[in-house]
Amino acid sequence: MGIIDQNNHKLSVLEKCAYGAGDLACNLFWGIVCIAGMFYSDIFGLDPTEAATMMMIISYLDIVIDIFIGSAADRCNTKYGKFRPWILYGLVPFCVAGVFAFKTPDFAIGGKLVYAYITFFLFRILYAVVNVPYGALLGVLSEDTEERDSVSAYRNIGAQIGFWLSFAMVMKFAQFMKEATGASTSNAFFYVVLIYGVVALILLFCTFNFTRERVKPVKEENNSLKEDLGDLGKNRQWWCLSVAVLAMIIFTACHNSTAAYYAKYFLADIEVVEQGSKIVEISETNDNKKTPIYILENGRHDTSSVGVIKIAGEDVAIERCFEVVGADGKSVNIKASRGDGAEPQIGDNLSFFKYNIKGTCLGMQVDWELFYALFASMGTLFTILGTMLIKPIVSKFGKKNTWIGCFLLSSLISILFMVIPKDSLSVIIILNCLFTLIIGPTGFIMYSMYADVADDAEVKTGRRATGLIYTSATMAQKLGYTIANSLPLYGLGMVGFIANDVNITGDIKDSVKTIFVLIPLIGAVIGIVALIFYTIDQKKIEENTKALAQMREKSVAE
Length: 558
Prior knowledge:
The chain is α+β, with helices and mostly antiparallel strands. The protein contains 20 helices and twelve strands. The protein has a six-stranded antiparallel β-sheet. It has a two-stranded antiparallel ribbon with strand order 1-2. A hairpin with a 7-residue loop joins strand 3 and strand 4. Helix 4 (84-101) packs antiparallel against helix 5 and helix 6 (145-168) packs across helix 16. The radius of gyration is 25 Å and the shape is elongated.
């Protein structure tokens, strides 16, 4: 059970901003995790199924480790508190691991797969070392429920800003870096992530430095992890909330993670810049990287380490597609012909192309990267707007009912993407703004509800396991993101999707749209069912607050 020290629990704006900065930092990387499927398939060079399997295996291991981190944090006692030391000592390793997880090495496909497993695993573990205690920190900043709700809103806004900079803008930033430096797509992406890493390090230090832990147990419990997990397993409210969070992440993250595919492979059409020319010789660069140089029949010397080619004396950003010419004279992607990991050979063709979106968006001519940046950026802005506007609605209808309503309305909007013509770009943007305005603020509700569950559990058991309960929130989110990243990739693999294929068919383009629209709705259905069985309402919150106060008074008297 918890007591409050005599400090003023009306937190300063500085402390609230510092706490929100922590999730901004974490989401500079987590936003990239949400499009990791596209990174590993389009940039890194893995087959979508291999990437999905790798992310799923590592995420499951990560989720198990989260339990031990949360439990260890609950039992940690230092001059900095229980949770803040994890942020201080973990921020440098976490940022370094995050940067190198999204670097594409000059390895063969087998070496790349091993590198991906190792670096993504280290990144996810170190992410947990920082983020799990960070989440639990919310529960000990103050026992005032209004203050916790306010801090939760700051956190959600910080998270959305970080998510916008990474999820929404990383592709556009990488394109800008590619055009400005002439670097390959993979190197340009790495340079952007490196900048994110430096910014995240500074922000996490601010979180450590400007926040304080105040809610402390009156009596340190010596329960085993087994006992704590037993209490958690019997907690029906925790189960309902965790399933709802898992479902919400599947709903939103499936929508977000497939948005880039929707923009690039459904909305955009392929414009061939230079028709396939036969490879007549393959050599290597004279550096340590030994990057292949493809000498073509038309006289062009090309290397995939450069993101542009010269046409009429001008640099043009392009995509490449290696093709095999069949007996029928038709060209097919070498992966479709020879399987995943196929390397170009003499006699293959090399085509250069780019993706063009027809029509204008909000009065602008856009490429797919800019459209995707607008799609995600405006969605993020409307999520922040929704977070600012939703508190009166929550006060009137309650957290649970508001969340269910958000699920229902956003699901109806999501279905409309199925019937909107692909050239109605402005309408698509507006629909996504409405979608995120409605479902985005539920992150604020979620964080606040976990604090309510922690209080409810303390009343029932007499023990406060803040770290473990907030760990479960992180676990539910990670599992949701794992499913959301992997499920669409498996779907794309089943329909025969190949990244950057100049010969993509209309059927596959339509399948990309179907995956973008329908798969997320699975989460909405599960979330609504879970919340129906959640019973902590405002009356129960007030009862728990009074009960905890009485328990503190009794403990002090003893």
